Amino acid sequence: MRLLRRVFLQNLRLKLIALGISFFLWATYTAEPFAQVGYSVPVAFVNVPDGLAIGGAPPNAIRVVLRGRSGLLRRLTPNDLTLDVDLATAPTGDVSIRLSTSMVGVPYGTEVVRLAPVEFHVSLLPTKIPPEASE
């Protein structure tokens, strides 16, 4: 019993101050409102198969709407976000790319609400072999 009393009552003033600071920080964080902000996020095509090149007119950026704490969203820039389109299993020719919210890399505490456009088309064309390489 003495041990418990000593653990809880020793340095009681410091423990109460620490509890008060913790409560203040928690209340400040949870009082911050949620917001939705749109960003133009650059598209990165990854794992393009060897011997193929991207043709057509794929979009350079996709409009992404995020939801999160307003303070966090104010500090974000489009460079903090990533949108990777994996073409590892894409066939040669016209390919329809359907985007999902899981393709967007966002910081902890935010979530993707909407993407625009959700679908676009690219062409995967064979690259030409230079004449000196074929000899």
How are the SSEs placed, and which strands pair?
Elements: H1 2-9, H2 12-31, E1 34-46, E2 52-55, E3 61-69, H3 70-75, E4 82-86, E5 93-98, E6 104-105, E7 110-116, E8 119-126, H4 131-134
Parallel strand pairs: 1-4
Antiparallel strand pairs: 1-3, 2-8, 3-7, 4-6, 5-8
What do you see in this structure?
- There is one protein chain.
- The protein is α+β, with helices and mostly antiparallel strands.
- The chain has two domains: 1-31; 33-128, RNA Polymerase Alpha Subunit, Chain A, domain 2.
- It is 28% helix and 40% strand.
- It contains four helices and eight strands.
- The protein has helices spanning 2-9, 12-31, 70-75, 131-134; strands at residues 34-46, 52-55, 61-69, 82-86, 93-98, 104-105, 110-116, 119-126.
- The strands form two sheets. It has a five-stranded mixed β-sheet.
- It is elongated, with a radius of gyration of 26 Å.
- The N and C termini lie far apart (89 Å).
